[in-house]
What does this fold into?
Amino acid sequence: MSTYRTPKHVADRCWQELVKHQKNISRLHLKEMFKQDPGRAEKFSREFNKLYIDYSKHHITEETVSLLLSMAKSTDLSDAIKNIFSGAKINQTENNAAMHMALRAPADKHYFVDGRNVTELVHSELQHMQEFVELLHAGNVKGYTNKPIDTVINIGIGGSDLGPRLATYALSDFAVSSIQIHFVSNIDDRDINSAFEQSDPETTLFIISSKSFTTRETILNAETAVKWLKENGCHSLEKHLLAVTANHDAAKEFGVKDENIFHIWEWVGGRYSLWSAIGLPIAIRIGMEHFHDFLNGASTMDQHFCEQPLENNLPVILALIDIWYINFFHSQTHAIFPYDQALNMLPAYIGQLIMESNGKQIDNDGNKIEYNTSPVIWGDIGTNAQHAYFQLLHQGTPLVPVDFIISVTSSSENKNHHKELLANCLAQSEALMNGNTVSSKAPYKNIPGNRPSTTILLHELSPASLGSLLCLYEHRCFVQGHIWNIDSFDQWGVKLGKNLSKIISEELRQGKDNNVTHDSSTERLISYCLNKSESS
Amino acid sequence: MSTYRTPKHVADRCWQELVKHQKNISRLHLKEMFKQDPGRAEKFSREFNKLYIDYSKHHITEETVSLLLSMAKSTDLSDAIKNIFSGAKINQTENNAAMHMALRAPADKHYFVDGRNVTELVHSELQHMQEFVELLHAGNVKGYTNKPIDTVINIGIGGSDLGPRLATYALSDFAVSSIQIHFVSNIDDRDINSAFEQSDPETTLFIISSKSFTTRETILNAETAVKWLKENGCHSLEKHLLAVTANHDAAKEFGVKDENIFHIWEWVGGRYSLWSAIGLPIAIRIGMEHFHDFLNGASTMDQHFCEQPLENNLPVILALIDIWYINFFHSQTHAIFPYDQALNMLPAYIGQLIMESNGKQIDNDGNKIEYNTSPVIWGDIGTNAQHAYFQLLHQGTPLVPVDFIISVTSSSENKNHHKELLANCLAQSEALMNGNTVSSKAPYKNIPGNRPSTTILLHELSPASLGSLLCLYEHRCFVQGHIWNIDSFDQWGVKLGKNLSKIISEELRQGKDNNVTHDSSTERLISYCLNKSESS
It folds into this structure.
């Protein structure tokens, strides 16, 4: 197997120029760049619909951007963008298209997979969602004692959890119903037990979300849900179960009635699925009209990504800046700080999106790569994060590029809080960039500055702006993966752990199986668990 | 100013030997190490009280451990450990001791700061907590309409939030009262409004936790709490306010009555304060008897750390392995995965502890250092994390050392869930270490393995085991900081952002102040916010 230090399809000349350029630019403090060029902020910021994106506080000049664009062009990025929208099977290792853009396309925008207009399938399923949500909101979905359902428990994990959980919470200002929604994902049953405690079996509906309908955590939790319903005297389980899956038969066998089975498709990856019926909890919370606004917000970003030349293309620009830090400054992390309590799940959501998509080391030609791919994505909400991790950003040693995200306006009546929130967010990007020298006698008080960040302002946190924002990250992730020449849509790395956990689970149930050989560490851990759980 | 590539007080010979040794050891796959030495797991694991710690799945041999210990000894680590317990002012930049060990010491174990036996102060405050908690649990703490308090809202941020929030939630199996506890920390008022929605002003008590009683977020939230109480007709504010602070006067001026002011001390850092009255929400949830178990759990680890020789000293061993990855393998991150829903705050808590303590680049002699200090700490609960980030761990490019944490037994009646949870946890460390080769024709399916992890088993998640666990991380963090020759107890890096946010906050209130000059990016961001919030 060959190994590659430069992505195979990048013109090596372009990559080497960036290596050289990095050495020059790293000598220049960001605050000097601002002094040298008064037009810098205008040059390196863009407005799109109701997003304002400032990427001027980065270690870039016009030359950097131009070199990055040349590098990107050498990989035929524009063709790759056309290719994904064409429905080509760009997920080569699983022989699938990555057609999540169809999930948010207007009905007259046709996308094709295997010659089939999938937009039509999507809109038929949206209609299905609409009918269900209307019935539910009208109190016409009823439990086994004929009381209207007033609580929904979403059982799903990974993509079937993070996306709907993020958006349902983020958009609670747009709620049109008082139906309680809980999310259960962990196989640790503290999770589902906590949801049970807050719910009444007579009026609770479970959404079982799993593309394969075999996800171990989800099926075990669904079985425990059924047990709970039965123990509480439920004699009509089918009134309390709903499934979102690509495996209709398995859902039906589990006891979900046909009209409660919502479909997703093989050409939708789990981490891109919140736009589909996996997003049902979102639609239940905010109603279908707002859900369509959410889809439209994403769809306008799709259009931007598909149509704009690379130099004006926001996902492209941001992805190239990511590449700049990861491959030329050797950053191993990237931080996401939404200054918004309602976006508390965003770092986790973006973390899954990028780390699962681009945490790869075999390229599309089967070669081992020796350049870095996905960084660790981490973060937390501001201002909390300031009081926990920002010390490291300001005075620590790793270089961490940061995304700050905040909405300009707030729905709150007390504007003081929001002004302070805004002030803190803007002050942090300024402080990270500028730093300051307090004292030569007390060097521990000095802040070096020169730390890069992007600031994304939303006019307001709305279904449309959230849709655009998430879609921006999706395509940014795609562009990164394209440059790295990897398959952003598979996830083979998680199979081995799943297989081994079945073996160990069996051993924990039956006692250690001497025909199975583990390393001595795993052996001892299993024995220790068996001994201690017996003695407890 | 000088710059240092090796910590100044480390014998350079020891450091260079580790550099050389790393080159040799990185050629050897972990699974080969296990094959070569059947006694490896036994050699590299330790039991302490009810913790079992396996660190055999690391890139270490006996030689590595010996070289790391020699390096540590060259810095007089044992003396440094004695020194912190002696109450010396090891937080040099703030001229303070770091005497959080006194917070959990038994009454007859005397610790001194400035010649004063602080254990006595601590126990007097513990008595104060006991009296209050008993009154509260008996329904004898009453609101302005004379109804018993049944809801507590803790207002605090950073150390005054993460610690109590973590432990209050983690130990809910040990709850002795049904008093509702909410945590508010963000200056975004969605946070406090959400707590208001779940509370009745007649029966709600606010704990205002701030060492300085000037923390902007906390004071603004406390003011909003007072406003809420007043708007709801509360005429006896003092019945609803409690403070934990080192600034008695400010709390009193805010309207907190003397007996409701709980004291903390200058020799307690915020991120080490959950053992003090900052932990009041924990004591309210689990009662004082369990709270003492929690303190004792930590105290036994203090004793271990203080007394054991370095080669048997768990915080020392784990810290040296951390250093091994950070300084010799150049890892920029470290992941924490508790396989326990109740420990969902642990990654954030440990993140603050380590990143705020050791995110530094000036050493104790005022020199700029050029070796790496604190990595980015990240993580999430298992099994959720498996479905979001583990792809990167298995097949991504950055080397991420992992801590797996799980309790062997579970309080749940349905043991199936817990067995699956255990199996998943153990399987992940096995898969990360071993990897596997599925196919030479489909290299994207292969898992390279060779990824390191520590597994920490708790017999059960209890006040005592949680106390020991958190204390283990505290001392591990201290040892790291000692080796790096930095002050782990200050946090000067966060001052600048605080100062700038006051300026920008004023501008957002009054309109842009043309006498204040920002960089063009920050200028435009402020103007954009002013324009858009006017037009909205």
